[in-house]
Design a protein that fits this description.
Elements: E1 3-10, H1 16-26, H2 44-49, E2 56-64, E3 67-75, H3 83-91, E4 95-101, H4 108-119, E5 123-129, H5 138-149, E6 157-158, H6 167-177, E7 190-199, E8 203-212, E9 215-216, E10 220-223, E11 229-231, E12 234-238, E13 242-244, E14 247-248, E15 253-257, E16 271-274, E17 293-299, H7 312-325, E18 330-336, E19 340-347, H8 350-363, E20 368-370, E21 374-375, E22 377-381, E23 386-389, E24 401-416, H9 420-429, E25 433-440, E26 444-452, H10 460-467, E27 473-483, E28 486-493, E29 496-497, E30 503-506, H11 507-524, E31 532-538, E32 541-548, H12 564-584, H13 591-599
Parallel strand pairs: 1-3, 1-4, 4-5, 5-6
Antiparallel strand pairs: 2-3, 7-8, 7-16, 8-15, 9-14, 10-11, 10-16, 12-13, 12-15, 17-19, 17-20, 17-21, 18-19, 22-23, 22-24, 24-26, 24-27, 25-26, 28-29, 28-30, 28-31, 31-32
């Protein structure tokens, strides 16, 4: 069969999108006039950051030895937060192009994505990119590929996606080396959903790979995971511009529209079948994406001159609209004494959180206050029940809690030999457990550690880059939930608990973390006419305290001489007034105080 389905995988910034652009030009899918950088990256954010956020599928035709071959390729994201999208895209393929930068060599996410492809039994074509750069060392990188993946160094194809060198050889290699799709297992339709997006005019556009049977315009389809049924109104494929089709046959990749109003009706990884003649069982491998990092979004006070809206309804409207385009983040209404009404949102990872926040501010035109990211915890109670919490404020009374379990990640760090000691110290300080150490080439090593997810979501990546002078990379995956000596720390301002500042941390680090928060609060909260105690407490025990001194008004300034008893009387009156004020006075905490605390790393 003259069809090849493959994916392009690589570490972030190794040239996947540029390589996809050159493949489109080499197969005459786009003309010189239509060509532009990052053609498949449709979002402005993708172009500015130079990263791929959404997978995109394209069908092109390549002539090889007098015959035309249909090549369906999927440009996938490279960042660890979008591993779910990569894994679903790989399910739709028989092979993958593994792109490695000739100046940077094998990186952490190169390893993770390659293992993901191998676990799906995909054929790999190793490609060494950017060979035209002065710092390129393709032979050394080829040896790294052989050492890490066991792929022969002489099989590594050397290309330059920027100049187009080696692109035609790559297209021929795809036809030669990648296997054709396996034979149909049944006559009934089974198509895998590997991606979807929302279009304002057509509703949800669903990207599919047909594994069995065929699908035509007008067919009534059923999602096997959700059980929802729809009528197909439009079929087609991207070449890379949308091209309408009357039907998609076995092994083809394309898109369908069926007047689907919400992304919640479509689940990536689900199987589509015909309502009239359904398949007996769905395709394997469907699972829900799991949110791992959580934070709160609240409307900020409006900044003059920004033109951004800052009310709750505007934020709700922006979040609902973005959720239609990205169903992989969750949200629910939240209320805070200090910040008012907002939303508790769940994300696949830190980059995903950053992307959602930036898209909300740009596309929704809203101004946001974002709380510190937290992770999900599993709480086992004395009565045997288990609950999952995403917010420290939701932790039940500690008298009912038997143990708190936190998510543990297996983290792979690739770094220069010179930085091994510093990185080991960094991981040990974050409660890391050493697993293994593997040499990658002559001057780099891969460290494998087990770390609590809560210890890497603040500034671990920044510290890693700082220690390795930018040369270190990391990849992580959640492996389990483990019990540890975790406690809930309450922050009290003038005796009142501020739930927005509560945190769950290890008992050994509770005092240190609390003192840092209190010191930042002390710097940010204005002085009042009475002393304000700032305290951190575990249960009923105070573990740290700072005080904001009172602002003294000079009540005896108007006394020019006279009896000292008159001055003493005024001072005593002021003292009694301050005592009464302290009992009924409330402390206003500015938003800047929250932002200063949320910026803190450790």
């Amino acid at each position: 069969m003259r069809i090849r389905n493959f994916s392009i995988i690589a570490h972030i910034d190794h040239g996947k999108s540029t390589l996809a652009d050159r493949l489109l030009q080499a197969t005459k899918a786009v003309s010189e006039r239509e060509a532009r950088a990052q053609l498949l990256d449709s979002m402005d954010l993708e172009r500015e950051r130079g990263i791929t956020i959404k997978a995109s599928a394209v069908t092109v035709t390549h002539r090889y030895q007098g015959e035309d071959y249909e090549l369906n390729f999927i440009d996938t994201p490279g960042h660890v937060d979008f591993t779910y999208e990569v894994s679903r895209a790989l399910k739709a393929c028989e092979g993958a192009i593994l792109v490695v930068d000739s100046t940077q060599g094998v990186q952490a996410q190169t390893v993770a994505n390659a293992y993901l492809a191998v676990s799906n039994d995909l054929a790999l074509i190793p490609v060494i990119n950017k060979i035209d750069l002065p710092a390129a060392n393709p032979d050394k990188v080829a040896m790294e590929v052989e050492q890490v993946f066991g792929l022969p160094a002489e099989d590594c194809l050397q290309v330059s996606a920027k100049s187009g060198r080696g692109i035609n050889e790559l297209l021929d290699r795809i036809v030669e080396k990648l296997p054709p799709p396996p034979q149909e297992r049944m006559k009934q339709l089974r198509a895998l959903i590997f991606d979807c997006k929302y279009d304002e005019y057509r509703g949800v556009v669903v990207y599919i790979r047909v594994f069995d049977g065929r699908i035509r315009t007008g067919d009534k389809i059923r999602m096997m995971g959700s059980g929802r049924t729809f009528n197909v109104t439009d079929l087609g494929r991207n070449t890379p511009f949308p091209q309408k089709m009357k039907e998609l046959n076995f092994a083809q990749v394309g898109y369908l529209c069926a007047s689907i109003k919400s992304l919640a009706d479509v689940r990536v990884g689900d199987t589509i079948t015909l309502e009239s003649d359904p398949a007996a069982e769905p395709l394997p491998g469907y699972e829900e994406p799991k949110q791992m990092v959580f934070c709160d979004f609240y409307p900020a006070t409006d900044e003059e001159g920004t033109g951004k809206r800052a009310d709750f309804e505007a934020l709700r409207e922006a979040i609902e609209k973005l959720h239609i385009n990205d169903a992989s983040f969750t949200y629910e209404t939240q209320h805070s004494e200090a910040l008012g009404f907002g939303f508790r949102c769940g994300f696949l990872g830190l980059l995903h959180m950053d992307i959602v926040q930036e898209r909300l501010e740009r596309e929704g035109n809203v101004s946001i206050v974002q709380t510190a990211p937290t992770v999900s915890y599993r709480v086992l109670r004395h009565d045997g029940s288990e609950i999952e919490i995403h917010n420290p404020a939701d932790l039940p009374d500690m008298g009912t809690v038997l143990e708190i379990r936190e998510p543990i990640v297996k983290i792979e760090i690739i770094c220069p030999n010179d930085n091994i000691g510093d990185l080991m110290k960094l991981c040990d300080a974050r409660r890391g457990i050493f697993q293994s150490q593997v040499a990658i080439g002559e001057d780099r090593q891969m460290l494998v550690y087990e770390l609590p997810l809560a210890e890497i979501i603040y500034d671990f990546y920044d510290k890693l880059k700082s220690v390795t002078r930018g040369y270190g990379t990391m990849d992580y995956e959640i492996t389990s939930y483990r019990m540890d000596n975790l406690v809930k720390v309450q922050i009290l301002v003038n005796g009142d608990a501020v739930e927005a500042l509560a945190l769950i941390c290890h008992r050994d680090f509770a005092e240190q973390r609390s003192r840092q928060i209190l010191q930042k609060l002390k710097e940010q909260i204005d002085r009042h006419q009475f002393e304000i105690p700032l305290q951190a407490a575990i249960g009923g025990k105070i573990i740290a305290r700072e005080s904001i001194k009172s602002m003294r008004k000079n009540v005896i300034a108007k006394c020019y001489g006279g009896d000292v008893s008159r001055k003493r009387k005024l001072l005593e009156k002021q003292k009694a007034g301050k005592k009464r004020m302290k009992q009924i006075g409330t402390v206003s905490i500015p938003q800047e105080a929250f932002m200063a605390i949320l910026d803190q790393g450790d």
